[in-house]
Structure formats: structure tokens, C-alpha cells
Amino acid sequence: MKHFLPIFFLLSIALYANGTEDLYTYGRTKADRLYQLKTREKYVVITIDDGPSIHTGDILSVLKKNRVKANFFLVGSEIESYPHMVKRIADGGHEIGNHSYTHGTFKDMTLEDIYNDEILAFNDLLKKNGGIPTSLVRPPYGYATPKQVEFLRERGYHIINWSLDTFDWRDPWEDSLKRVQRYHQKGGILLLHSNKKSVYLLPEIIRDLSERGYTFVTLGQFLRDKGHPPQAPAREASSLWERRREFLKGSIKKEEL
Ligand SMILES: [Zn+2]
């Protein structure tokens, strides 16, 4: 019996040293990506996908009025349409996450395509428009294979899904609110979108959850407190990626790859 204690002690160290593993475990369930914050506190994270859009300004006003900070998972091609919104979101004290460059599903993409054309290209565009490259990645539609997730995690990215889809893009906002009232749990990550319905839904969610004693936190804030800064890792200095980039831009021919 006396051997059990040291073994348990060593196991604890191993788990601790394993870094993010602990963040992604809920009870006995292990996951390779983040669905919910592991916490006993009454925390809630608001995530707003697919912007910037024509509605992002109104969403920012709602958040400011209610003194709530959120995570905006932006899309590169949408930043191209509303480049000035990057700074407006950041200046509001919100966090920007990487929701890919094209919003194409990762389903048929190679690891190389995802890393170079979606993740790094997004962060480059973010930086160009005054944002800080981020390690927070939400694959389009929440879809990524375990291999794709592993590849990105090995390079220092956090893969963020959600615990509760409000279905704001499909349902009347009243139904989305009911869903939050019924199913939200401690540490839940709510999924909303940069659409008109969110402008009505957000104040109601904030009012309801505040009344029930919830605190609004951001992913970066939570991860930083756990010792995992949300800044993007240093880029891999691989000439292969760089040459492929040149090829995609049309500066070099396929034979030169
Ligand atoms: Zn999306």
C-alpha cells in the first residue's frame, strides 16, 4: 500500500508538466480541444464568430454599454472587407481569435494548407491591421480532425470550440435566450455570430446571466491565469512554407518549389 502515495505524487507531476492537457479534461472526459473552461467559478465566455460584419459596430456598442468583454473569432476574408474593425474591436478591450482566412472547412485541407494559408495568413492580416497575432484558433464549423488539432497544438495553438450553440443564425433570438437559460453551465463558452440577431440577443443574455451571478471572462484572460498566454507562437522559419507562399502569390512557378 505504501507504494501508492509516491506513484500518485509522480503522476500528479506528470499531469502538471503536461501543460494544456489539464485544461482539456472534464471529470474523466479528455478532449483534444477546449469546449468549456475547467472551473468551479460561475464564469461565462461570449464568443462571436464570422465577423467583422456590418453589425459588428452595434455589437460593440452593446458590449460597451454592458461593460462586458468578448472573444471575436474573425475571418480573414471578412477583415479584408472591414479592415478598420480590427482596431475598433481591440480598442474596446475585446480579444480577437483566428477563425481561419477563408472560412473553408478544414475537412479536405492538408496540414500544410491549414497552417500556411489559413492560420499564418490570418495572423499576418491581423497584424497588418493593428491586431496582435493570436494562438486562439476556432476551425470553421468547429471541424478539425484529431490529426489537424494535434498538428496545431504542437505548434502552440489552442483549439477552441464551444459548449453551447445559441443557434442565433437559425432561430428567433427569444429561443436562443431560452437555450442559454436552460443549458448554460459554469465555464460555458457561448457561440454567437456577428449578425443582427446578436444585437438583440446579447443584452438579454448578459442581463439573464448577470442576474444569476455569472461573471463574463475572456478566453485569453482565463488561459493567462492558468499559465498559457494567448499570443501566437513564433513562426516556424521554414523556407518550404515561404516558397509555397510565393507560389500561391504567383511569384514563383511550381517547378521552383
Ligand atoms: Zn464560422
UniProtKB/TrEMBL annotation:
Organism from which the protein derives: Propionigenium maris DSM 9537
Annotated PROSITE patterns: NODB
Record-annotated NodB homology domain positions: 42-217
Record InterPro entries: Glyco_hydro/deAcase_b/a-brl, NODB_dom, Polysacc_deacetylase_ArnD
Superkingdom of the organism of origin: Bacteria
GO molecular function terms listed in the Swiss-Prot or TrEMBL record: hydrolase activity, acting on carbon-nitrogen (but not peptide) bonds
Protein name listed in UniProt: NodB homology domain-containing protein
PANTHER family to which the protein is assigned, alphabetical: GLYCOSYL TRANSFERASE-RELATED
BP GO annotations: carbohydrate metabolic process
Coiled coil: none
Signal peptide coordinates: none
